[in-house]
Amino acid sequence: MPSVALKDRYDIIIVGGGAHGLACAHYLARNHDIADVLVLDSAWIGGGNTGRNTAIVRSDYLLEASFKLKNFSLELWKSLSQELNYNVMYSPRGYIDLAHSDGELEHFMCRANAMRLSGARAEILSPQQIESLEPSINLHTKSRFPVSGGLFQPDGGVVRHDAVAWGFARSAGRAGIDIVQNCGVSGFGVRNSRINWVQTVRGKIHCDKVLITAAGASSKLARLAGFELPVEMINVQAFVSEPVKPVLDKVINYNAGLAYISQTGKGELVMGGATDGYPSFARRGSFLRIEDTLVRALQIFPFLSNLRLMRHWSGTADIPMDGNAIVGKSPLENLYLNCGWGYAGFKATPAVGWTMAELLATDRLPDLLAPFALDRFKSGALIDDAGIGPYPWLH
Amino acid sequence: MQASRLESGGAIDRSSSIEFFFDGRSLRGYPGDTLASALLANNVSIVARSIKYHRPRGILSAGLEEPNALVACADETGNLIPNLKATEVWLQSGLKAHSQNNWPCLKIDVGALLQLFSRFLSAGFYYKTFMWPISGWPRVYEKLIRQVAGQGRISLAADKKCYDRRQARCDTLVIGAGSQGIVEALAASGRDESVLLVDQDSGVGGSSQWDLQPGDAGIQQQWLKQKLIQLEQASNIRCMTNTLAFGQYDHGLVLAVEQHKSGVHSIYWRIRARRIVLATGSIEQPLIFPGNDRPGIMLAAATRQYIYRFAVKPGRRAFLAIIDPEERAATAAALVHAGIEIVGELGEGEVISATKGRYRLKKVYVFSRQGQQKAYQCDLLCVSAGWARNSDLSGQIGKYRFEAAGNSQDQVHKGGAWSFVDYQNDVQGSDIESAVHEGFSHVEHTKRYTTVGMGTDQGKTSWYGTTQALADLTGRQFGTISRTTMRPPYSPVSFGALAGANTDQHMMPVRRSPFHSVLEKYGCVFQTSGEWLYSRYFPVADESMTDAVRREVFAVRNAVGCVDMSTLGKVDVKGSDAIRFLSRVYCNDIENIQAGRLRYAVMLREDGMVFDDGTVSCLADNHFLITMTTANSVSVWRWLNRLLQVHWPQLDVQLTLVSDHYASLAISGPNARVLLADMSPGFECNKGDFPFASVRTGWLDEKVSCRVFSLSYSGESCFEINVPARHAHWLYQRVIELGADYGITPYGLEALDVLRIEKGHISVGAEIDGRTTPQDLGLASMVSIHKDFVGASLLQRPVLKDTNRLQLVGLVPVDNTHDIPTAAQLVDQEWHTGDVMNSIGRMTAVINSPTLGCSIGLALLERGHHRARDTLWTASPIENRSTEVRVVDRCFYDPGGSRLRD
Questions:
Q1: Nearest residue, CB atoms, A112 vs list B134, B510, B878
Q2: Considering only alpha carbons, which residue of chain B is nearest residue A147?
Q3: d(Cα B764, Cα B151) in Å, to the nearest integer?
Q4: Residue B798, preceding bond cis, omega within 30 degrees?
Q5: Rg (CA), chain A
Q6: B880-901, pLDDT tens digit by residue?
Q7: Which of A175, B635, B655, B836 could be joined to A119 by an S-S link, Cβ 3.0–4.6 Å?
Q8: What is the ipTM of this complex?
Q9: DSSP secondary structure, A137-158, as one string
Q10: Beta-carbon separation of A308 and B495 below 8 A
Q11: Chain A interface disruption, residue of B139, B846, B878, B882, most A CBs within 10 A
């Protein structure tokens, strides 16, 4: 990322140098031959939720819209390292979602059937099958919530999250796209429902089109552009143990409460849980959530008790009123939105980049994005994967 | 025989020596030693191998900043605990310690060959390699890399140690019991405040416990002695040693872990303080030069601590590379005290160009200002670049200043091979250079690209050198580059301690219904669901679940059954606006409800989706009892309170959660009414006086007050008898006793579910899935058009009124000898293995109906309400089958409801 001499005009300005924004920049150049693009980040690229997640990729969703976009992503992950000539370390270790009652397993079966019917791989596992796939798991009867089975997505796994941002940035940079860090946006020049220029700390920059893809800063940026988003900002945390030799192969999701666990290439056991449950921009979580996630992880991996908490992180998740992303057009003519990914956005990175680039380049809404439109809150075409409703802190 | 133990001095107990083992070798030390000091006393210089290049490593420090000396030790239950810092492990008799990350042994480690390839293994190398062939990364490279990564090995055995969580509060919390902390604690005590003084060390006094400054002549020790007496005497000060304060949060919350040597292994403390004083001191920083990681290279203050505190002689011949002259003098004095020869000092303008010694330092090469190289024979090199303040605890709440004391920038150099800025993660100065070269010059990027500061020492000896190198390389001034974001924990803390006793069954409390013990007596099989243990079914002898459920269902349809309904949420609603409130909460008309009657009611979320269903019973004027589903009882209770307190505070309504007050037993079946009459509830039980959808209060046997609701989920005549929870046992026995003649049969939730599916009733989690409107569920006629209610306006959104939505229907197999597969998707045509098809809906519930003698199901189907008698297909790729089904009314049993009215 060489320091860039800013031009005073670009075809497209992407506000937000996270993996989504950088992926969009990459695909603008690669798929549409558009390189007159500026990516702005208020701090350092990949430093928001791209750098603060648990790096899990999967597509085990019941609702078609969610499934299709994330499954397209999964397809793109498979060959992304070669495409970028940068090893993002897509590791399809398999993702296992644990069910804690026969009723819950029935729901999982419903999801697995939907996935299989759409052409993805999915299996329902018995506790014995889970134990043989992941010998380190403990499904014995002492646990508070016995495990009655699980949904297994073999193509799910992990990707090296930082490398995704860096790989897309490097590729976009090589195509001639400008990526500027430490350059926050403080306003938009709006006239007749169009953005003419973007006000930055380095001055005014004119443009044809703007994409806001800024996760936790989305609502503030939308307000600068003159409209409100049906999104709340909630803190989400994750943490790692010290590094140990390989002990856990798969990605495991414990579902009585929430704890998702995998082991990094370096050997750390990385764990995440639910949101902190209240709106905040502080990026400092409540330690109670870490305790809560930990005790759930200990139910299936009691050996963790002998390890130590080494590092934790927290970030601002932007969660809309149905818990699903808002991607597509905005109330302004030449402003596009990609937000509301909450703590489920990492896995969608390449698909969002691909489809958003198509929208920006052609102004035609790709089918995959159509369900994620902002106006669905008006029309009622909600995509509520969890069925939780307009209570973002519960998603 | 402890070859390197001084003959006298030190805060160790020489009265008895204790045996310990390192890699199986029997060694001896003293109580009061750390594993590190005991190893040094036994002349053990190489303790570990580094993570990446497997370089021999010794002991750099004497505290939690130790990056090198990571070992595995057996705990008191015999489990091997990896990655412990030898400087933090207190020596105990029989301690078994092992080196890590080497094969076949610590001295001859094959992994060290990786040093030959260091050129290809620099920071970030794996981002640019291992990409071909496409499946190469997961199949081959990742597996190899994972094997060589990681530090120690963790055993899968369960942790049997005992942990606890506790709370404390105080006026002033002083973190760090060094001289500054002591002064602050005593001052606060003098102001009559309650004081907590915590320190991670085993003693109070910090470095003044042992350290000597030249010319000090014991003044400091004298001072400390006096202060310790004062601390002892102050009744409002509590000293917590061996306690690591690892996190600070807003509003005076500090988290700490206290280590114990026996009994409770460690305690996790949440401390609330009005005022927090951070007296956390500083950490000495090493110098960066080629070969700065050899065993025998030690921080200057650590050297003094080993000499004075542990009476250990860490070498024979020492060279000093200490920037601060005072510190140099103090260290020289300590070395002289220990009888260690000083072979030379690093002068102004001189740099160390290389070190030699395979397993232990043998030679230091120094480049003078004139460019001449000189070699010094030595086995100890005391280093210090200066001190970095421990600002983590303030940094964690966003109040951060990066302060470095006593540095002189030109004395700290980066150049040459094996110049480590981060020992634990094997990050060299050249890695920082290549990171900057690649554009990763933001310190957060540098960290992630090189992994600097990401080890278990959390870079306590790395940030200083890293930020300095970054400043140099990017032409910025040292001190303008901050560290990366600081977050708890300050130093790694035990997961076991954080979880406390919340393990196994104690992870969270189990809720049991008031009938639990009596249900157990009747052979109930329970099922964990949420926080509850539900009664699932009641097998007789060795009956299977299917057989038991079938028998229970027949009993309800033909005689009478009883089921525990106590887990349902119940709220008592009173006040002059009670009906107005309820009318806004529920979507159906309830305003005209009469005392003594009850009504099925549905509440929506604000977005128009069905939230929950239950009953509203009018007990008297302005007095109601409402029920919620078990699954939603907490969220509905929260929701009602929110509505009342935030949205409509002007309403005169009092809500009382009474879920736990009542034991609730439903008796249902054709014999239910006679059984109720036999129980002499003190009111008329005939159909005329106590019709369907009513509520009565009375006294069972003239002694137990009861409230009886006539309602039905099963489709049979049913009475839900509520008594005060303490009478649960009595009620159950009484029902069984009096019901014997009528064929009373206990049933559980499995039978309840079968009965409701036969009757076509909806259930939370299945049909009420958070995405269905009342119209979708066939409840359109319930939705009031006469009033406003929560969800009314958003329910008007076009997509919610669309007729193409998924709508609830009943399905039966076209060939009723076939079963409908569970959890199947619905498709227009027959599905064959491997077919990719568009789904047009999904099954929400499927049973083999005992009453109807065939498979039936409920489903959400596109345009379902307009497809009566259509045939379509279920598809279950998981079960690998597809069944043709027909759309029917969702009420499969007694659609006219005659069994309730007759």
A1: B878
A2: B528
A3: 48
A4: no
A5: 21
A6: 999 999 999 999 999 999 988 7
A7: B836
A8: 0.96
A9: ----TTSSS---EEEEETT-EE
A10: yes
A11: B878
